[in-house]
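Take a look at my tokenised protein here and describe the backbone shape.
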Amino acid sequence: MTGGGSGGHITPLLVVARELKQLRPDVQIVYIGQKGDGLADIPAADQNIDEVRVVRAGKLRRYHGEGFKQLLDFHTMALNLRDIFYVAAGLWQSFWLLKRERPDVIFVKGGFVGVPVGLAAAVLRIPYITHDSDALPGLANRIIARWARKHAVALPVDIYNYPKEKTVMVGVPISHEYQPFTAAQVIAAREQIGVPVKGRLLLVTGGGLGAKRLNDAVAICLQELLDRYPDLSVVQLAGRKLETDLRQLYKSLLKPADLKRVHVKGFVTNLHLYSGAADVIITRAGATSIAEFAAQRKACIVVPNPMLTGGHQTKNAKVLQERAAIKLVTEDKLKKDDHALMPPLVELFDNPAKAAMIGKALSEFSEPDSAKRLAMLLLEEAA
């Protein structure tokens, strides 16, 4: 298994690993990560991963909407040039790693570590299956697509440019722990994560690496929100590298008495408890996060990251907005009105029935059997 760079790549890998172990307890799973990945310790700690290896990988830095301006950015171009050598080194490392391990099949979830691993697998004629969570396939998977045995995808096959005979719709793999919570389960979850059992709960998450622009947008309006709802508690998953800065920011922005109502964390491995316990969630539009919250029927305010390549988060969010499955707030809107998050928050907190309706609409995008389907595809290919 290979993939990385974000929680949206690593989390599905671990879910599929669990399904593989359930279907075939004797299967040996090796995770190949990217050297320097800030989230590499997560698969290393997973009980379903038997071995962890790392290789070099490079990243082509492209930012949606920046156009030719990127060519004038010396720092970006220098990093891209450096990473050409990283890819070459990673290809060499991957070739010898795969030659030694000789896996029966490889699962490539996405992220640039998939490029050297996929190319080496093609040279060694080792079968691999890719997976795309978004409507727009990632560049890494597109680079190695030609030699893949199958392309597993999240959305209908016709959306993708892959050969139709090799493409299979499976959805987005999510943990079985993402289920709608009963009232009793909400109470138990809140007790476990250390927030008040009664009252409203807002969860803010920018994904596995966090999102500074989202953190800042929430920070601007948080005191107003706390003043309006005295029973409100907030859990904000800031990202490991952003946690300390956000804590310091809140010390300067919030009333001392309200600081204890705001719980800032860098990263959690039991996100399902936090999301299951929440009344409303503010999130980016990453496909994995959306699939997880859809399975729990959560009312979400989505702020897509407009800078990601191809604008895939914006596309994801617009599809959901058209189905009335989310409340959408764009970063452009936040630039014009730094309190743009307040109207949808007030609407959802003041109208629980409306929140439930949005959560139900989002649940229609959930595919609970996705991980099992992927695991079966891999076992069939390995047979």
